[in-house]
User: Which sequence fits this backbone?
């Protein structure tokens, strides 16, 4: 549904962080709060990718994807053992 | 594992592959279901201090204390469940540990396969007995638990990869997959890219979706994609029917044998009220018609070992499990709870024919223990996922195969060898099958190469493993595919079966830099945003430059041709020429290499220019152009060939796959 939340991985361009932020985590928090009152962040990523994962509605994910510095907002995938 | 070191030629007895002490500086990171640290495979006797560069940790949980769990062998253990819990609810701690502890067994199996220490007198209930060991016994292990009873979630996998790379692993082993998706949507591909940039080789399982075509997972070119083959070991079980006919299956049953006299024998499909009763699903067998009898069940839908439990619960005395067309003649052994054996499709059909023609059918099963020296071996497993590569057809995948059928390795103390709740047995080792088992073989072998050649890039190590792999038996006949009984193709086995002794000294390697992979992403048409998501780079492709996947210095060749759509003659009327440029780096002694090409079909011609390369020093690079000329063929046609460079001592082989779409 439109209001049900699922996990998204948000990839950002670290170099596009606005000047008013000192810490990337603050930028991530602000980006998340800008699209959602209730979204919760699961992880921040800083080595293999730049960005974070969070629980979002599809509309929130879409709004996040449109923000400056966001490269991609990808729904979580479930993997299985081989 | 027992037997695979001998099968691969790296047993210490052979003296061919002594492990250098530098391997103790190599850390293999395993993303899986965690670890059962009390297993002897993680004994750290003889290990020196943890490498100074190591930044990992041993995270604690209720049942996982760093002081006792981690040591100089198992140097890291972390768990990641935020993504899992966000989707599935809190981890049910009555069923699984919210810690790095492995309640499943899979993770203990894979990590001990990659780098477990020596364990004498290992076996599963007496089967496959011997000294068990991982591929890189002197390497260190770090485990990252990302898989839980409900699956493995990409947010957790990315977090684990983030930590593993930070911690300082040198090789990453992932025996999991998530189907087929673009690289910028695939957490494993993204994590593996950054790992590769840091010099970490990432080995992933190809998947168990074979023998269907285009069924691969983990196909990014910076990943080493591993399919599965058999070894020269079997666990035979002998069936005798009332008509005197004898058949052979496989089994790991260890318990009270069946009585000497033959027992009544029924087909599950005839002792059920269910339309799919032949599959021996839970609750589908009629106990009065099963009690004391041997039951023939068909493979499919539910787990093989569960079928045995269903027959046992219904009062059956034994089970014969028949493959169907989906599995052909592939025999996977299981530690069933009752006397049971698996048989191939042909044998199953013959037995069904007896069952339907005989009014009072009877049968017996005798268990034959462990048999080694089975030939031919290796044979490609039917379940091993196959090419072509659905994401990037111009990159040949899988890259190679390794042992993945009936592999003995360490197991959890929380579950029996079948993994069923009703299985109360506990064993230090288990024998299981899958590309999950072949992947850590390659991860461990990569750790050995890394220890021997610390300066080699991940691409160079992968190239060494691929170009020295073998695609034919000693007599020259091509490796077989058990699903067809016919020769396996490069879409099935990639470059072939890993040969670590040869990989130690490959002569030449095809090296690839991270920048080369950016060019590859440009070639497949990724936007700057997509490239940024994969690579973290603000990379934009040069609009004035022509990028091509064939520019990637890959150690194998995949050449997709487009079928001619015009011309009165249709297929066969148009000739296409495709050129690939490759660069070889000398990692051996100076020498002159000559190229030899073969192509299976007469409508394909392969030429190499120059046909001879003379290397004067180590590290020297020389390039060549290979031209593939083909007459147009009907869509769906495929053909194969090979390109081999040799100086008389080294053989640097690349498979070639041609397709027409």
Assistant:
């Amino acid at each position: 549904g439109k209001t049900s939340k699922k996990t998204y991985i948000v990839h950002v361009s670290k170099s596009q962080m606005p000047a008013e932020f000192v810490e990337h985590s603050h930028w991530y928090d602000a980006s998340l709060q800008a699209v959602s009152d209730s979204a919760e962040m699961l992880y921040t990523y800083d080595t293999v990718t730049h960005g974070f994962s969070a629980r979002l509605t599809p509309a929130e994910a879409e709004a996040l994807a449109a923000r400056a510095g966001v490269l991609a907002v990808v729904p979580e995938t479930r993997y299985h053992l081989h | 594992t027992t037997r695979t070191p001998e099968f691969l030629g790296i047993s210490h007895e052979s003296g061919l592959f002594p492990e250098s002490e530098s391997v103790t500086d190599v850390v293999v990171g395993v993303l899986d279901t965690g670890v059962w640290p009390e297993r002897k495979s993680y004994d750290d006797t003889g290990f020196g201090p943890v490498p100074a560069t190591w930044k990992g940790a041993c995270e604690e949980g209720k049942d996982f204390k760093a002081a006792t769990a981690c040591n100089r062998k198992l140097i890291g253990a972390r768990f990641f469940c935020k993504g899992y819990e966000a989707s599935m609810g809190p981890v049910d701690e009555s069923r699984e540990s919210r810690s790095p502890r492995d309640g499943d067994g899979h993770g203990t199996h894979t990590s001990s396969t990659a780098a477990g220490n020596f364990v004498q007198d290992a076996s599963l209930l007496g089967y496959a007995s011997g000294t068990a060991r991982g591929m890189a016994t002197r390497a260190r292990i770090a485990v990252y638990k990302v898989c839980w009873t409900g699956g493995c979630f990409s947010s957790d996998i990315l977090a684990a990869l983030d930590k593993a790379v930070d911690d300082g692993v040198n090789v990453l082993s992932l025996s999991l997959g998530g189907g087929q998706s673009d690289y910028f949507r695939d957490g494993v591909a993204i994590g593996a890219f950054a790992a590769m940039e840091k010099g970490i080789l990432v080995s992933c399982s190809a998947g168990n979706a074979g023998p269907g075509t285009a069924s691969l997972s983990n196909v990014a070119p910076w990943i080493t994609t591993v399919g599965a083959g058999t070894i020269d070991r079997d666990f035979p079980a002998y069936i005798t029917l009332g008509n005197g006919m004898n058949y052979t299956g496989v089994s790991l049953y260890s318990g009270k044998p069946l009585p000497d006299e033959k027992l009544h024998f029924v087909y599950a499909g005839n002792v059920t009220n269910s339309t799919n009763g032949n599959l021996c699903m839970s609750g589908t067998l009629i106990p009065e018609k099963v009690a004391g009898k041997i039951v023939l069940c068909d493979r499919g839908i539910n787990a093989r070992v569960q079928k045995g439990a269903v027959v046992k619960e219904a009062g059956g005395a034994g089970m014969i499990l028949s493959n169907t067309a989906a599995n052909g003649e592939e025999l996977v052994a299981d530690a069933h709870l009752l006397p049971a054996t698996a048989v191939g499709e042909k044998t199953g059909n013959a037995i069904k024919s007896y069952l339907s023609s005989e009014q009072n059918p009877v049968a017996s099963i005798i268990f034959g223990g462990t048999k080694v020296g089975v030939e031919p071996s290796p044979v490609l497993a039917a379940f091993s996922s196959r090419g072509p590569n659905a994401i990037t057809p111009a990159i040949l995948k899988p890259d190679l195969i390794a042992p993945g059928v009936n592999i003995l390795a360490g197991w959890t103390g929380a579950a029996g060898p079948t993994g069923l709740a009703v299985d109360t047995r506990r064993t230090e080792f288990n024998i299981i099958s899958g590309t999950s088992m072949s992947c850590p073989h390659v991860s461990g072998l990569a750790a050995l190469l890394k220890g021997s050649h610390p300066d080699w890039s991940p691409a160079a190590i992968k190239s060494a493993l691929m170009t020295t792999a073998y695609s034919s038996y000693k007599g020259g006949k091509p490796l077989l595919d058990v699903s067809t009984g016919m020769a396996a193709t490069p879409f099935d086995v990639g470059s072939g079966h890993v040969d670590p002794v040869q990989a130690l000294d490959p002569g030449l390697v095809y090296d690839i830099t991270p920048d080369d992979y950016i060019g590859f992403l440009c070639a497949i048409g990724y936007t700057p945003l997509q490239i940024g998501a994969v690579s973290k780079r603000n990379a934009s492709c040069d609009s004035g430059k022509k990028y091509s996947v064939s520019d990637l210095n890959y150690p194998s060749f995949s050449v997709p041709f487009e079928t001619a759509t015009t011309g009165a003659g249709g297929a066969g009327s148009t000739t296409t020429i495709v050129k690939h440029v490759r660069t070889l780096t000398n990692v051996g002694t100076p020498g002159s290499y000559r190229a030899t090409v073969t192509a299976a079909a007469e409508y394909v011609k392969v030429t190499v220019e120059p046909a001879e390369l003379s290397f004067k020093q180590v590290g020297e690079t020389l390039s060549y152009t290979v031209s593939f000329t083909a007459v147009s063929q009907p869509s769906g046609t495929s053909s194969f060939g090979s390109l081999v460079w040799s100086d008389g001592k080294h053989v640097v082989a690349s498979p070639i796959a041609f397709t027409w779409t």
User: Anything to note?
Assistant: Chain B touches chain A through 52 residues (CB under 8 Å).
